[in-house]
């Protein structure tokens, strides 16, 4: 019998102090000396889908209504739905039990093709402003919201999930091949603020 092993495109120099095998992924739950943040968290094991349909505004994937306007996001039942354009949305599983992957032709699973990272805690927006010209702290936008564009010169989907002054939660996905360089760039930008790797438990804590 063949044992399936799914591997994250992201590696940290620190070793996790607690792990769990889930859906053939080894999930880092905690790291030693995580501190109070800011944190960089690998969520690449969390399932993601691309949804494309001409009638996308009428769809309710996983029981969640797709937002009406590009850039809008909604988080319900542990599923984040990001409206990308007139016919496309991104779906990200953030919490709760693993949902069954939809079989309809409109859905394409992107989990193993992409990197999924969370930046959480103190000075998150001071860190991101060193990596992108996109205004993730735009006061005219209410979290959660989606911005598509470059971070560290890499095309990304960036979700500002929470924002409290200069602190918050920022999610980003990009092509899997950029995983190593993206982690290096983010940790480098966050070094002056004491950014450290953290496990999934730290993300679920700030997610609430």
TrEMBL record:
InterPro entries: TrmE/GcvT-like. SUPFAM superfamilies: Folate-binding domain. This is Sarcosine oxidase subunit gamma SoxG. It comes from Desulfonema ishimotonii. The lineage of its organism: Bacteria, Pseudomonadati, Thermodesulfobacteriota, Desulfobacteria, Desulfobacterales.
């Amino acid at each position: 019998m063949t044992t399936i092993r799914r591997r994250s495109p992201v590696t940290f120099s620190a070793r996790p102090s607690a792990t769990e095998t889930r859906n053939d992924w080894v999930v880092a739950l905690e790291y030693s000396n995580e501190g109070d943040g800011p944190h960089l968290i690998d969520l690449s094991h969390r399932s993601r889908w691309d949804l494309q349909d001409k009638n996308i505004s009428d769809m309710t994937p996983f029981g969640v209504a797709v937002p009406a306007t590009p850039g809008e996001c909604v988080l319900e039942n542990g599923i984040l739905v990001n409206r990308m354009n007139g016919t496309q949305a991104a779906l990200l599983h953030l919490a709760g039990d693993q949902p069954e992957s939809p079989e309809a032709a409109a859905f394409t699973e992107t989990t193993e093709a992409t990197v999924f990272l969370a930046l959480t805690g103190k000075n998150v927006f001071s860190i991101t402003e060193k990596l992108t010209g996109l205004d993730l702290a735009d006061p005219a936008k209410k979290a959660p919201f989606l911005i598509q564009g470059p971070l560290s010169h890499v095309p990304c989907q960036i979700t500002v999930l929470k924002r409290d002054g200069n602190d918050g939660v920022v999610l980003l996905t990009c092509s899997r091949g950029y995983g190593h360089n993206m982690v290096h760039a983010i940790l480098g930008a966050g070094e002056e603020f004491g950014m450290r790797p953290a496990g999934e438990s730290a993300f679920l804590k700030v997610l609430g």
